[in-house]
Amino acid sequence: MKKLGAYKIILMAVAFMALFGIFGCKRQNKAETKIIPAEARDEYRNDKGELMLTFELTALKTRFTPNREGAVIVSYTLSNELRELSVTKAALKIEYLGEKGEVLTSRETQSLFRAKPIAPGEKRAESFTISFNEYDRVCGVKVSILQVADQSEIPPYLPPIIDSYLFDFYNDPDVKTFCDNFYGDMPVKLKYFKANRQESETDDPEIITAVFEALKKVKIGGESAISVTDSEIYFTFVMADGRSFTVAFESQGILRY
């Protein structure tokens, strides 16, 4: 199953709101954001010594809301240094540093760009957000590129099908199998995450089924240039054998693909 990339799609508002109503999401108060002066850069070379990808930090911010939710937002660019092949995967390790350079916490994250590969010479803007109680102690980050794959290793997805319902939109045989066999091979767990909050999970079949049925009613209306990656919400269905399928949304009714 796939982990989604960064292709933006408009959703039907009614289905979108009904979906989040299952988990009782509510409107958040306006957050306060602070920019932290910081620099970070890294590069990744393949076994042949060829430069494949470079990372460059563009902004480091902390976010605090009146209901005491703290978060750290890392904005950056990934530059494909290859001459002929597109990049379809990048895995990063981000270490969050304190005033004396001590590591306060760290995260590993990977992004699949199979829906929209990073073309040769392209510089792609991305961001990553974590909830962190000690957000106000963060003074910088250190980033390491752990893994990079190009289109010869991980091929791009087939083009998505616009003006279709969610599971047809992906145009992927694994997703079709997941949808068709849902009740015969039902997920054993559902994970739910909303930016600035801790991840929640449930093994309640009724909740898992309700989310699945709500997602089936989501219709894709078209592409969108809007990007609000610091407000991500995602649902991950986990199968008994460890396979998983993730649907990620941003604010304003945007599907992250």
Percent of residues in β-strands: 35-45%
Structural classification? mainly beta
Shape: globular
| The number of domains | 2
Please, what is the average pLDDT?
Answer: 84
| Secondary-structure element string | EHEEEEEEEEHHEEHEEEE
**Distance between termini?**
13 Å
Number of helices: 4
The Rg value, from CA coordinates, equals 19 Å
In order across it, which strands form the biggest sheet? Answer: 11-10-13-14-15-1-12
Instruction: Catalogue the unreliable spans.
Output: 1-8, 24-28
- Please bin the fraction of helical residues: 10-25%
Largest sheet: 7 strands, antiparallel
Quick one: how many beta strands? 15
Short description:
13% of the residues lie in helices and 42% in strands. A seven-stranded antiparallel sheet has the order 11-10-13-14-15-1-12. It is globular, with a radius of gyration of 19 Å.
